[in-house]
Amino acid sequence: MNRRYLTTPIYYATGDPHLGHAYTTVLTDTLARYYRQTGAEVRFLTGTDEHGQKMQETAAKKGLAPIELADQMAKSFEAAWKDLNISFDRFIRTTEPEHIGVVRAFLERLWSKGQIYDDVYSGWYCVQEERYWTEREVGADRICPDCKRPVEFVEEKNYFFRMSDYQERLIQHIEDHPDWIVPVTRRNEILGFLKKPLQDLSISRPKSRLSWGVTLPFDPDHVCYVWVDALINYVTASGLLDPDGGPDQPGFTDPGNSWWPASLHVMGKDILTTHAVYWPTLLMAAGLPLPKQILAHGWWVMGDQKMAKSVGNVVDPLALREDYGTDGVRWYLLRDMPTGSDASYTPQRFQARYDELANVLGNLASRAISMIVKYRDGIIPEAAGAGLDVEIESTLSAVTEHMDALRVHDAMAAAMDLARTANGYVDRREPWAQAKDPSRAEDLDETLASLARVLTVLTALFLPATPEKMTALASQLGLKSVPTFEEARSISLGGLRVEKGTPLFPRPDQ
Ligand SMILES: [Zn+2]
Hints:
With about 500 residues, the chain is an alpha/beta fold. Helices cover about 50% and strands about 15% of the residues. It has a domain at about 355-490: Isoleucyl-tRNA Synthetase, Domain 1 (Orthogonal Bundle), CATH 1.10.730. A six-stranded parallel β-sheet has the order 3-2-1-12-13-7, with helices on both faces. Strand 10 and strand 11 form a beta hairpin.
């Protein structure tokens, strides 16, 4: 059985979801829906990261307990993902008892294998980011190089993970698996980072300073560093580890029964190092398999600011959902950003991508269905003839190839090209002329049957990006649901009754 376990990062629960979170999540959702379309069994994980100093401080500022803030934000993220039609199977929260149990069992496993030691740390610390910095990094001004806040001098006991022991093995893994980190520019960045000696990783914070975290199983006065806690969520949700296993029983269940290892971790490029260095070395030390692939995507840049001003405050494409619908926004995000690179948002580019949906795909659906209603009383005719079969087959192959290579934008372009070709087919066949001549009834049947077939395939191809509209289109075609790629190849449509619906991609001013 083909199984895929896909993850987004768990998002830090101090602020509301924004475009960056939304893009990662829509991208992962599109891949998850694609794999389901190809017949795979899919597990799609997302969630919220709820421990750490920032949570403790943000909650205090709002007069809330940390768990109250976490409850609010988890609801806010879940609601945002419902709005964007995200088909996650599991929403994990790091404050769940199951996850806390798994973090403790994971750390216990490292501890019993001698992978963690204690030492005194003395140096500079940024409270905001829970990060240690060296003398040189903070400079004479004693300022955090990342957030520019003043750092504190601390001298405290700390637990360290022997990350440096795994440097060579990690480099070897990356070199042996050229597609492990996608795209290649990000892979090269990590290899560059690994040219410098890797330090051991501090994995604890003293409770005297920070109490909102997972208590270490081997020292009740310390909590786990929030990043280590967060990364382990991928294992928790896989079911690999039984938290009740106890210290002598590492508690790992039969790997065959779990979803581990993940097929793909998706994230923004800003958190690639934690996923491509900290996480795999922690897994190596725990004796667990590594995720099969890591995709680090780029950032949305807010285009030409002058332009944005002239059209009002609409600089956030998520706000365009009201006018263009969820699928219009999803389509834009997937189609316009080359997967892995940065892209720039402008209202003009958004409009151009939406026009493509409306004028190419929407127009094809509307004219084909109208003609079946007009010329054949709404019944899709049975007809011989190859129609667009060659184009359909080559598009299915191209989309599969692009999606499997994580080039989602190329897959979208290929699917749209098929709709464009089908519009050309209508113009060439001139069904309105065929309809006027009774001796050409068979030709007309062939034209209409071919159009119904290509539309059916298009529902399958576009479903990952625009699920709501493709479900509506399938229903207009008389289908119970959107077919998988395999079903779309051989589905029999003759005799189905189509129904005209509202336009799939209406003009916002209509
Ligand atoms: Zn900082």
